[in-house]
Predict the 3D structure of the following.
Amino acid sequence: MKVAAVQLNAGADVAANMNAADRLTRAAAADGAQLIVLPEKWTAIGSDEQVRAAAETLEGPTMAWAGALARELGVELVAGSFVEKLEGTDKLANTSVHVDRRGELRAVYRKLHMFDVEVEGRSYRESDLEEAGSEIVLSHTDEGVELGMSICYDLRFPELYRILAVRGARVLTVPAAFTLATTRDHWETLLRARAIENQAFVIAANQIGEHPAGMRSGGRSMIVDPWGLVLAQAPDEPSHIVAELDLERQRKIRSALPSLANRRGDAYVWPQEVRA
């Protein structure tokens, strides 16, 4: 199965972002990609006011574009994430969707872990704008390959990916807007660790460059195999990368080094007191 990650430099201009995403998605499909992953918040990045202004429901233009393009190109899209306006409320969510090649919505995942942190002196408070999701989501391709869905900061929570792997995920998708500093120091290590420990392919599509409101993303979008080898890495510019996923090699890795099968679920108990 050939897959692609699209790397974008999104800003607050939704139309410009969608045009760039359309161009690079078409290029990835022309290179033979059957499954294409876009980055986090590819429709709009900026101040809280700019992001809120770009929010839309699942019936909005982002989903219409994703469905129409997937159907036209005959590909599947994990359409990164966009800021979803939740029906019937004034609340927002950071939402990733999987659209099949008929253009139909296959799965919806709302980011579980809010990016409420301080990085190099800058404070980020994602929870001030968006509400955390509450459901772990496993989807599957038209060929039946199981997809574990996640977004950006989720990458730091290995328990999410282990649950996805135990439920059957063979491919993990990571749309992201990793900061420049955390891309530089943590991104590749975390991606390869999630791939190795879960013996899964990882498709990680990151934002690149400067965004409004002083934000910067680090790029280096990657596709990693279940042995932790980097199959493709994006250059430092808006672009796309492709790689062939050898599912038979994955089966052999899981058979020869059966760390998932050797889990001791009966021995794992969460501590009653969390010291962190």
Residues 180-198 form the longest helix (19 residues).
